[in-house]
Amino acid sequence: MPVSESNKIYQEVIDAMIAVHRLTDGYTPNHEDQTAELAVMIGRHLDLATERIDALHMASQVHDIGKARIPLALLTKPGRISVEEYDVLKTHVQFGYEILNKISFPFNLAEIVHCHHEYLDGSGYPRGISGDEIPLEARILTVADIVESMSADRPYRKSLGMSAALDEIQRQSGVRLDAVVVDACLDVVKRSNWRPISN
Domain HD-GYP spans what residues (predicted)? Predict the structure, then answer.
């Protein structure tokens, strides 16, 4: 997705980070690209300003960049993971924030990434923040991330299907997930027949 002229240099920085990440992890950047595509569609449906769409797009493209610090064997491990392994996996959010916060973006890109596993009811991580403490862009990214993750093949399991993904965001709507964002996602997927591309 082309960004506005004023943000081209920042998109080039993001593209360089993605290229480095692809050297060690072929799956995660593809997941991020597809999540970004859906997130932008939701953002446009909600009439976000161009600058906010740019921020949402770039944040979505690198929302899991912190997984570069997680052992690939854990990222691709089939079956259930232990509590200890899950604790290690959760650190990718903080790592991602620390990486992106070193760059002087003209918008809250690092904060959007920091919040993409936070939930409205405060049950998310890493900070357990809630409600309006979570930027709208992060709430959009969270919904897009869930839908893409569930409806696409993962390294450790096959797709659970789009119906299951949409059922899940509806189940969490108004509790963990922003109901307005969920409704927008449902409408976007229905109108466009959006589906993730198999890696």
Answer: 6-199
* In contact, 185 and 194? CB cutoff 8 Å: no
Q: Is residue 120 classed exposed, middle or buried when 0-12, 13-18 and 19+ CB atoms within 10 A define those classes?
A: buried
67 is catalytic: yes
pLDDT per residue over 45-87, tens digit each?
999 999 999 999 999 999 999 999 999 899 988 888 899 999 9
For residue range 14-40, list pLDDT tens digits in order: 999 999 999 988 889 899 999 999 999
DSSP per residue, 126-143: SS---GGGS-HHHHHHHH
Per the residue annotation, which of 8, 67, 102, 158 is the catalytic one? 67
For residue 196, say if its preceding peptide bond is cis, omega within 30 degrees of 0. no
How is domain 5-192 classified at the architecture level of CATH?
Answer: Orthogonal Bundle (1.10)
| Token digits of residue 88 | 């290690």
Tokens of 49: 């300003």
Q: Which residues pair with 146 in a beta bridge?
A: none
What are the residue boundaries of the structural domains of the chain, listed by start?
A: 5-192
